[in-house]
């Protein structure tokens, strides 16, 4: 396995764990049972990547390696064991959701580029990889998808994708490109929530 492939796999594993915890925490807020929590966790963890892989015409990533299913189970166990500690941490789900968004966005970009897609497609695929799982989660929880009505979410992924593109064109080391794109997405999300930033809403006249 070459270095870039290993880096992409590490990013996907970390993103899976972060997103799974986010989904399970949302399910816990709705008082779902353990199975319901697992379903919400797996929906967030693999939903966006599955849509991406289908659009790229390849086997969904989780069907080639059982680790993602197992990783979600560990995330469920983590939430169950440390539920009280997580409850004391304000907006813990938001932190994990942001980490998952950034990690999966980068993984989606890298995989799309590996399949020979142009950068504009890779940026869209990165956004889908990072944000679509949250849409599926919100539908399962009977909530309005967060990307449509709350703080900047998908736009943070797009900005991170553009950052990745610019740095890659500049031929910077891959580590610098990945870390910078990751920080841009996280920083934009944290600032949007901290200062209540959002896109203008449509007016029904």
Overview of the molecule:
The N and C termini lie far apart (57 Å). The protein is built from 9 helices and no strands. With 205 residues, the protein is mostly helical. It has helices at 3-29, 34-56, 67-81, 83-88, 92-114, 119-140, 146-149, 154-169, 174-194. The model has no long low-confidence stretch (mean pLDDT 88). The radius of gyration is 16 Å and the shape is globular. Helix 2 runs parallel beside helix 5.
| SS content category | mainly alpha
Radius of gyration based on Cα positions: 16 Å
Q: Shape from CA axes?
A: globular
Question: If you average the pLDDT, what whole number results?
Answer: 88
Q: Tell how many strands the DSSP assignment holds.
A: 0
Largest sheet: none
- Helix/strand order, N-terminal first: HHHHHHHHH
Share of residues in helices: over 70%
Alpha-carbon distance between the two ends: 57 Å
Estimate what percentage of residues fall within beta strands. under 5%
Catalogue the unreliable spans: none
Question: Please, how many helices?
Answer: 9
Q: What tags apply to this protein structure?
A:
205 residues; mainly alpha; 9 helices
Write the layout of secondary structure elements.
Elements: H1 3-29, H2 34-56, H3 67-81, H4 83-88, H5 92-114, H6 119-140, H7 146-149, H8 154-169, H9 174-194
Describe the structure concisely for a colleague.
With 205 residues, the protein is mainly α. The protein has helices spanning 3-29, 34-56, 67-81, 83-88, 92-114, 119-140, 146-149, 154-169, 174-194. It is 77% helix and 0% strand.
